[in-house]
Amino acid sequence: MSIPRRSFFLVAAGALLRASDRPKQDMLVRSARPEDLEMALSGFSDYITPLEHFFVRTHVYVPTVNVSEWRLTVEGEVATPFTLTMDDVKKLPAVELVSVVECAGNGRGFYEPAVPGIQWGNGSVGNARWRGVRLADVLKRAGVKDSAKEILFDGADIPLGTMPDFQRSIPVKKALDGHTLLAYEMNGETLPVKHGFPLRVVAPGWASDSWAKWLTSIRVLDKEHDGFWMKSAYRHPGKPVAPRTAVPPDQMQPVTSLRVKSVIAAPLDGSQALSGKPLAIRGVAWSGDAGPVTAVDVSIDGGRSWKPAALQEDQRTQFGWRQWEFNWTPSQEAYYTILARARDAAGNTQPFDQEWNPSGYGWNVVPRVRVDVVQELSSALQPPQPSSTFSSPPAGFKNTCLSCHDEDVIRQQRLTRAQWDRELKKMTGWGAPVKDEEREGFLDYLLSNYGPRPRGR
Ligand SMILES: Nc1nc2c(c(=O)[nH]1)N[C@H]1C(S)=C(S)[C@@H](COP(=O)(O)O)O[C@H]1N2
Ligand SMILES: [Mo]
Questions:
Q1: What is the largest CA-CA distance in the chain?
Q2: I need a labelling partner for 356 at 20 to 30 A (CA). Which of 76, 145, 216, 306 fits?
Q3: Is the pLDDT of residue 13 over 50?
Q4: In angstroms, what is the span from residue 251 Cα to ligand 1's centroid?
Q5: Which atom of ligand 1 is nearest to the CA of 153?
């Protein structure tokens, strides 16, 4: 099968047609193709995340959909299967809500020891105003049979090589919840191409792997879907396990609700501040099914003592994030460790330590920034320079490994030989033509350049 090397040109051409597809700005590029873009820390200063700063996560290349040809089919365990055009969708009652969308793997890069996958920092999350129709209204029109257990979504994106198609299902109960939407607008604009134009699932409170983009098909199932993206990916042990434990997928549970979480937007970690001058400590906090966030406590002494931060009263929605602020005037020159800890309506709070899991999902550890409070600001501190002594790849590596994606997704990994071995198996299964005699050489190269090492090197 031939792999389109530069299919994003097609996407760019489609994107020019809509104002909501303005170029992204200030993003951390975790993978150039397929495109995985992280929101910078400055994005946590906004209540509604502007589209220019909204994170993007795609397993494959972004598809361009011609909306006049686009159809949504509804079938399976229903009385009347049918097909909708976009005009049909827009005739259904419109609903609007604010909700965080957060990747299950947000914060994966913080786990120690490291796990494979996109090494997200804090920013594979955003808060948007969604407009669309209730999935329940669409399902009611089809007449869901009593045998229904799950709703399976498929989108217009096409798998690369022999990787399985990205198809995700949610239980009927979540699908019929009045907050679960099929959205065609984001922040008052047409849904951008990268975010699922023309229609995507909005499953508020749940990690965004359930928020299928470029939706084309809804199938009502009488059993649990057993495709790769449900049975192998997006699963969590549901309890703490020792680091590096290889838990078989059938002994794990699907990732569903987000966990209560806060992020400190300011001050920045490693920055300086002046003694005697007010310093605003601020950020956002959100939860999942157990939202809204009801309190955020802040410590400026590494957790010895805590005080409540002020929460925005008018942002008390179940699924959106809430901005918080804590005003503090450091009276003494010292090195301060600032922590923030959110609590939600069900009384859940953030843990102080990681709950390691094989795929690095659900990171919600209490965030920490350190600030040096001084009499006079010194000139810019030099950040440590990353070491760049990489050896060149063995023959055949580029042709075999860099056809679907670039080396960026490989460079960010920090894996053991056993983990690289599993990655090679996964990629071979998806169509990477690794020859038997090349395998050891590839492993040596990957381990010596992208083996376990401290974060940021
Ligand atoms: N069809 C389709 N839907 C998808 C994906 C995908 O690869 N294909 N990625 C999912 C994942 S893992 C995430 S985190 C969100 C990201 O949504 P965003 O790019 O709009 O921020 O989309 C989800 N929906
Ligand atoms: Mo994700």
A1: 73
A2: 306
A3: no
A4: 25
A5: 1
- Residue 191's CB: how many other CB atoms inside 10 A? 26
d(CA 60, CA 35): 8
Query: Does the pLDDT of residue 413 top 80, yes or no?
Result: yes
Ligand that lies nearest to the alpha carbon of residue 36, given by its number in the listed order: 1
Across 15-116, the runs of DSSP E, i.e. the strands, are 27-31, 36-39, 56-57, 72-76, 82-84, 94-102
**Which residue of 209, 228, 255 sits with most ligand 1 atoms within 8 Å of its CB, as the best mutation to test the pocket?**
209
Q: How far is CA 444 from the centre of its chain?
A: 31
Please give the pLDDT value at position 390. Answer: 76
CA distance 153 to 72: 10
Q: SS3 for 356-392, per residue?
A: CCCCCCCCCCCCEEEEEEECCCCCCCCCCCCCCCCCC
- Closest approach atom of ligand 1 to CA 157: 1
Question: Would the pLDDT of 383 be above 60?
Answer: no
Q: Cα–Cα distance between 369 and 341 in angstroms, integer?
A: 13
Domain map (residue ranges) of the chain: 5-233, 261-374, 397-450
**Shortest-distance Cα residue to atom 18 of ligand 1:** 56
The yes or no reply on domain 397-450 and CATH 1.10.760.10 is yes
pLDDT digits (tens, 9 = 90+) for 223-237: 999 999 999 999 999
* Ligand with smallest separation from the Cα of 155: 1
Which atom of ligand 1 is found nearest the CA of 102? 14
pLDDT value at 375 more than 70? yes
User: What is the pLDDT confidence band of residue 4, given thresholds at 50, 70 and 90?
Assistant: very low
Nearest in space to 283 (alpha carbons), one of 315, 319, 318: 315
Residue ID of nearest Cα to ligand 1 atom 15: 208
Q: At residue 213, does pLDDT exceed 50?
A: yes
Architecture of domain 5-233: Alpha-Beta Complex (3.90)
Ligand 1 atom with the shortest distance to the CA of 155: 1
The CATH number of 261-374 is 2.60.40.650
pLDDT at 2: 31
Ligand nearest to the backbone CA of 58: 1
Regarding pTM above 0.85, the answer is yes
Distance of CA 190 to the CA centre of its chain: 21
> Is ligand 1 within 6 A of the CB of residue 101?
yes
